[in-house]
């Protein structure tokens, strides 16, 4: 049975001002979800993803938290215009930045709005497991820290199991590799969750790898494309030929296959306007289903294994591996 990847109107029940630059939207959205997942919003025809700050295990309501990006189209519009009672269009929850079945400690590093999925994960890990949980947040100054009181409340409720440390850039400079290593401490077997601005995430990832963490221990949620993506392209072979058939809005369009081109690029070359947002494999906005042939994704930070098994593909990352391929976008 195909998953529902379409947009649904949901009502905003409440808007909570978290800091001068960040709001939480409490949504009347009865969707099942996992801690760490996100919704994609369609706002003024533009698509953007926002992670849940709520936990399905501890919160009765589904909440997303949005931080203003200077000059940003959607974050500013949402913060300046949306109010309780408004309708917004969202997808069902998606994403793979979720808890794993393990008893190992959870150690998280987050910067700015990166706290959003981390708070969701932390609340679920504390409520449903016996794992130790530690979070290092990095923010410009004390006024910029989102969820300071929620984190303090969790630390009070789970003494000995939960620790939060706040790093402030203005008095202390940016987080350093030494600070990352020190915070990782002796938790050699931990799962490390990382979410924040790209330079912060790169520093944390490199510091953890140099400290001895295995790549499989580090889970990263990218809000913006990585500077060096996409890596791992298939070698171009001009002799391959073949046809990419794209079904969009119920109409079939056949495009000659160009080796090394993604399905999204092929669709655009055909003059089509399929949905997309991040173009980095993070948001699932560009999802379509392969009904004939096969594709492999350069990166996938959004689709779960069972969705891939059903033929779903991120078209911004999917390169055909068969000469002929048919992909169907949901209406
Ligand atoms: C899976 C996923 C989950 C996300 N979850 C959240 C969340 O929980 N809360 C949240 O606030 N945001 C989240 N984001 C980021 C969000 O989707 C938007 O990218 C962000 O709000 C900026 O959109 P915009 O339209 O305001 O800015 P745009 O108009 O797209 O961008 C304006 C400028 O800002 C830069 N920029 C874009 N995003 C950021 C950013 N996050 N930080 C710094 N510079 C940026 C762009 O490169 C561009 O130069 C998430 C993104 C993804 C892919
Ligand atoms: S556009 Fe975001 S995953 Fe493809």
UniProtKB/TrEMBL annotation:
Residues 242-331 form the 2Fe-2S ferredoxin-type domain. Keywords: 2Fe-2S, FAD, Flavoprotein, Iron, Iron-sulfur, Metal-binding, Oxidoreductase. Coiled coil: none annotated. GO terms for molecular function: 2 iron, 2 sulfur cluster binding; flavin adenine dinucleotide binding; metal ion binding; oxidoreductase activity. Transmembrane segments: none annotated. Residues 5-100 form the FAD-binding FR-type domain. CDD domains: fer2, PA_degradation_oxidoreductase_like. PROSITE patterns: 2FE2S_FER_1, 2FE2S_FER_2, FAD_FR. This is Oxidoreductase. The lineage of its organism: Bacteria, Bacillati, Actinomycetota, Actinomycetes, Streptosporangiales.
């Amino acid at each position: 049975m195909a998953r529902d990847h379409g947009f649904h109107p949901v009502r905003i029940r409440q808007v909570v001002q978290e800091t001068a630059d960040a709001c939480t939207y409490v949504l009347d959205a009865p969707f099942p979800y996992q801690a760490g997942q996100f919704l994609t919003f369609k706002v003024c025809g533009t698509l953007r993803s926002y992670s849940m700050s709520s936990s399905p295990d501890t919160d009765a309501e589904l909440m997303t938290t949005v931080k203003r990006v200077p000059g940003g189209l959607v974050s500013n519009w949402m913060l300046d215009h949306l109010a309780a009672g408004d309708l917004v269009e969202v997808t069902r929850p998606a994403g793979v930045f979720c808890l794993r079945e393990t008893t190992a400690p959870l150690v998280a590093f987050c910067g700015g709005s990166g706290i959003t999925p981390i708070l969701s994960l932390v609340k679920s890990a504390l409520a449903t497991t016996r794992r130790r949980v530690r979070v290092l947040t990095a923010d410009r100054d004390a006024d910029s820290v989102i969820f300071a009181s929620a984190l303090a409340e969790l630390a009070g409720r789970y003494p000995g199991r939960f620790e939060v440390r706040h790093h402030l850039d203005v008095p202390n400079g940016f987080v350093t590799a030494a600070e990352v290593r020190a915070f990782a401490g002796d938790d050699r077997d931990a799962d490390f969750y990382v979410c924040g601005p790209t330079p912060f995430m790169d520093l944390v990832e490199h510091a953890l790898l140099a400290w001895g963490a295995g790549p499989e221990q580090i889970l990263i949620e990218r809000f913006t494309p990585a500077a060096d993506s996409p890596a791992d392209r298939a070698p171009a072979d001009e002799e391959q030929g073949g046809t990419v058939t794209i079904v969009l809005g119920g109409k079939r369009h056949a495009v000659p296959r160009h080796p090394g081109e993604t399905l999204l690029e092929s669709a655009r070359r055909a003059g089509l306007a399929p949905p997309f947002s991040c173009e980095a494999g993070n948001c699932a906005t560009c999802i379509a289903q392969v009904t004939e042939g096969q594709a492999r994704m350069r990166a996938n930070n959004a689709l779960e294994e069972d969705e891939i098994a059903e033929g779903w593909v991120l078209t911004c990352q999917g390169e055909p591996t068969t000469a002929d391929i048919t992909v169907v976008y949901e209406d």
